[in-house]
Design a protein that fits this description.
single chain; 243 residues; TIM Barrel; 8 helices; 17% strand; binds zinc ion
Length: 243
């Protein structure tokens, strides 16, 4: 489903993982082929940063200038899903300048829940990093967030908040994720904060899979003009990508 019934066609997927992340199942070429077959124009590969067991070493990110910029007719961007740490810093400390963008996310493999306010402060602290343009799956009450505060910070810091389709596919892993999106998304609409719909695919079959997210957006009558996935040029402008 590409969101046509919302009056918007989603043309890019900016949060995906390959075998480089250690627990995903496609190569960049297999992921790009899947993106092309689904009619996407742009694919963002965002391997996990340090802190996720089995992910790559920082030298992978150092070598990103060598990575192909077009595969199977699909434009390729390369970022990282970096971990929010309890000291309010991101887990990737080296070669961050080589990334096209970073997505900051809390993962319980390397984060200790400190309660709603402190979690929100740690996340906002990471959102201040110059490469962080997105927050992944801000939807899980294993590390609860203060949504009015988070959305206001996103507005101030030029960060888009993600609606993660994988969370909706496996809601048993992300505590109260649907309820949390029903709190967060209307706040985004009220403040005009852009939203990134992501597959968070760990397998080629899931690239560009947005069905559950689009159904939720439709239920909430969400303004499609706030979706960053609808326009490649707008997405690139948002992250300051000029190539
Ligand atoms: Zn994640
Ligand atoms: Zn991810």
């Amino acid at each position: 489903m590409n969101g046509k019934n919302m009056g918007v066609r989603l043309v890019l997927d900016a949060h995906t993982h390959t075998i480089v992340s250690g627990h995903a199942f496609g190569t960049i070429r297999e992921m790009a082929q899947a993106a092309g077959e689904k009619g996407l124009s742009l694919l963002g590969v965002t391997e996990h940063g340090p802190g996720i067991p089995g992910t790559c070493e920082p030298i992978y990110f150092a070598n990103l200038p060598v990575a192909p910029r077009r595969l199977c007719g699909v434009e390729m961007l390369y970022g990282s899903e970096v971990n929010v740490l309890n000291d309010g810093t991101i887990s990737l400390k080296q070669f961050v300048d080589r990334l096209d963008y970073a997505i900051a996310g809390i993962h319980m493999t390397c984060y200790r829940n400190e309660g709603r306010e402190r979690n929100t402060e740690n996340l906002i602290s990471c959102m201040r990093h110059e490469k962080v343009f997105f927050v992944s799956h801000p939807d899980d009450d294993h590390s609860p967030l203060d949504y009015p505060r988070l959305v206001a910070a996103a507005k101030e810091l030029h960060v888009a908040l993600e609606l993660n389709n994988s969370s909706l596919l496996k809601p048993q892993f992300r505590l109260n994720c649907v309820e949390n999106y029903k709190t967060m998304l209307p706040l985004c609409q009220k403040l005009g904060v852009p939203v990134l719909v992501s597959s968070d695919a760990h397998d080629p079959d899931d690239v560009g899979r947005f069905d559950e997210a689009l159904a939720l957006l439709e239920e909430l009558r969400f303004d499609p003009s706030l979706l960053l996935n609808a326009d490649v040029e707008r997405f690139k402008r948002f992250i300051g990508y000029t190539k």
